[in-house]
Design a protein that fits this description.
Helix content is 36%, strand content 28%. It has three helices and four strands, in the order E-H-E-E-H-H-E. Strand 2 and strand 3 (49-56) form a beta hairpin.
Length: 101
């Protein structure tokens, strides 16, 4: 069951859009090793605006992700790639439809 989520907004510095895109694509391999990360999306919202949406069964899973490898890498690269620090919003999931495995 998915109960909590994160939405992270990322605004790339001019000329850094391709690097942000590559970072998000590379993040998928890392989060595949996080059993509590039920879903993870790296998204492009506009020419220089990107985001991450991910969801978890509980607060412990969300907290583990926030201190995991992708989060650490993102914070390390943020000053070089982003106009401002990532905007991280904690979300409560009210309803969800996921494929059965």
């Amino acid at each position: 069951m998915v109960n909590v989520a994160l939405f992270v907004r990322l605004e790339a510095k001019p000329g850094k859009e391709a690097e942000v895109e590559a970072f998000l694509k590379g993040g998928l391999a890392i989060v595949e090793g996080e059993p509590a990360t039920i879903v993870w999306f790296g998204i492009r919202i506009g020419p220089s605006t990107f985001g991450i949406f991910d969801a978890f069964p509980d607060e412990a899973g969300r907290d583990a992700h926030l201190t995991g490898r992708v989060a650490v890498a993102l914070m390390a690269k943020a000053p070089d790639l982003l106009v401002e620090p990532p905007v991280i919003e904690k979300i409560d999931v009210l309803a969800v439809k996921l494929p059965l495995t």
